Each structure stands twice: as structure tokens, then as C-alpha cells.
Amino acid sequence: MASLKEMRNGNRLRLLRALHLAGEADRAELARATGLSRATVSGLVGEAIARGHVVERHPERPASGGRRGRPGVLRLDPRGGVVAGVDLGHTHVHVVLADLRAEVVGERRVALAADAAPDVALDAAAALVLAVARSAGVEPERLLGVGMAVARPLDGETGRVHTAAPASRWAGVAPGEAMTRRLGVPVRPLNDGNLALLGEHVRGAARGARDVVYVKLSEGVGGGLLLDGALYAGARGVAGELGHVTVAPGGRICRCGNRGCLETVASASALARSLAPTHGDALTLPRLLELLDGGDVVVERGLRDVGRHVARALAPLCLALDVELVVVGGELGAASRRLLDAVRAELRKCATSGSVAVRPGQLGDRAEALGGVALALDQEDWLRDAGLIALERPDPVAAGRGSPRALGAGIG
Ligand SMILES: [Zn+2]
User: Whole-model pTM?
Assistant: First the structure.
């Protein structure tokens, strides 16, 4: 039998849901919509107003002197709770704070030393979450949870960075638990490629698609898989990690220990290395992007080669999984039309993978953090525990096939 507390919690959610569906309602309308008694509704509404989950507006009295004390009109306060999306990269932390409708209320990105120890990086990430909340005027108690992108291979079961990641100070670290200790709220970590894909799926280039491969071309090469509308993490949580697919047999030794991985030919540093004869050996990613902007033909040639390598890694995956869309994200991926053309041309050479659409990422370097927001809002139990509900926007695309809700089912 449900306890009194559970019943009350259930009633509260019924009331909030009814209010969300109605947009605005008074207490009598809420009683009718929920089937709860007027007294119960009044009690719950009073409590919700006190907690800051619901706001009340008193319509002005008609000038003709209508009846006194017209009932207040109630609506949900989307800022009754907020969630944070955190992107913990190798050299940056990016935080997006969003309300219960996934509207962004604050955002900031800071640089991180490339060799920062895990504790230092996690401290910086937690501090940034609180700083963004402060500047958005949100009390820290309103923070319900965090979805966090981690640029390291995470074990889906334990949430720890794979110990197979050789020579990494992050091996064995549990970034989600470590952030929960710092912020005092649940934190759900996920590989950055997967979260970037979730971001693009919920509000970017992959909206409405059900079967998608995402490739992230940046300092490193990452990726993610969306199958049948849900993120697919695989048995060890690294599905879609295209960076270590062999594309150049006999090529360079990769940091993973294998030879000729995609990352050895398609990351920013690999591209910089291949351009050393013409551009010297100190090409950084920002400089590469500048040269590309300036129409540097050698850089464009390099990016066409990158595109061909990427397609070589993608083709068997597209064929085997029958995906409809490839999204190429990351700073390099979204920057070059030539690169995308090369991916398309190479995919076309394979019989059926030729019909796969290839699009650049739309969210740029915000994809991971926005994916974190979507992941956090998908955790119904976090919201329920706070007596809240997620407010889905009546967006026909997001509400259609592959809604954010469907995604959560696949990640768990
Ligand atoms: Zn490798």
C-alpha cells in the first residue's frame, strides 16, 4: 500500500501535470482536471507557491464592480527547478543552465590546462556550475541535477573512466560521483560523443531522425550512435567511438596502442602534422580554422583527405546499421564544406551507404552541454524527488518520433 507521503507526492505531480497541460488554471479548474478535492488542491497549491514551483496572478477586478475576490490564475514557474549541462573537455569546461522547459538561462565556457589533474578539472567544473547559477540569479538549491559530457571513455556500468585508457591520470576516476560529492545533486556522466549527439538530436542537425551516426572531429575524434531513436552505448559504453577504427593499415601508432586508427589521420593534430611541410609544425586548431576561413587551399586539401578517411570508417557502419543520417560535428567537422563533400563522395562509392544524408553539426561547441541538459531533464526520478515535472515544449518535431523521452529509455 502506498504511504501517505507517496500519495501526496503522486497528487502533487498530478496537479503540476494538469497545470502544465492547461497552461493557466484556477483552483476549481484544477480540482475538476485532477479529480482531487478542492481542499486537497488548495493545500497542494499553497505548498507549491511556497516552494516557488507555481506562481499566482490575481486578475484585476472589473471596473463595473464585479464580485469580490476573483480566484487567482495559476501557472507553473519554469524556473521552479533548473538543470545543468556540463561539458568537461580536455582543455575546457562549458556549462549551460536551463529551466524545466529546457530554455537556457545561463551559459559560460572557461579554459582548462590540458594537463590539469582530475581533481582540479572537477573542482573547476563544479565552481563554474555555481558561478553560472549565481549570475543567472538562480539559488543553488534550485539545481536538480546535472548531465555531464566527459571526453574520456566511460564504462557504462560503473561510470568510471576505462582503466584500459593507457597512461591516463583519469583511469578509474568516476567523474559523475566526484561531481555529485561537490554539488550535492545527482550527476549523470556520459561520453562526450554521445551527449553531443543527444544535443544535436533534441535541438540540432539530427532532429526528427531515428538512426544516426555522429562523428566529432576536434582535437581528437569521437562519436556516438542513435539507433531506433535511442542512444546506443554498447556493451562497454564505447559504441560509436569511431576514433579507433583502423583506416590506415600500417599507419602511425595511435595513443590506444593500435596502428592506423582514424584519430591518427583525422584529428586536428593529425591534420596539423600532415600540413607541417607547408605550414610548419606549430599549427593549432584555432590557427587551422583561421587558415580555412582565409581560403587556404592546402588546408582544404588536408580536410578533403580527412573527409575521405572519415567516410572509410563510416561506410561499413552505415551499411551494417542502415542509418539514415551522418552528422559531422566538432570544430573541424562543422567548419568545412569540402570535408563534408568528401565524406559524401566516398560514401556514395559504397552501394547503399550512398543514400545516407550527411549534415554538419548545428550546435557547434555547445552540443555536449546542451545534450547534458536534455539528459538531466530526462531523469524523471530527479524531478519527481523534488516534486516537479519536466515541461516539454509543444514542439512538433521534438514531440514526434524520437522524442527526448524515448532517448532516456535507451541510455539506462
Ligand atoms: Zn587508436
Answer: 0.85
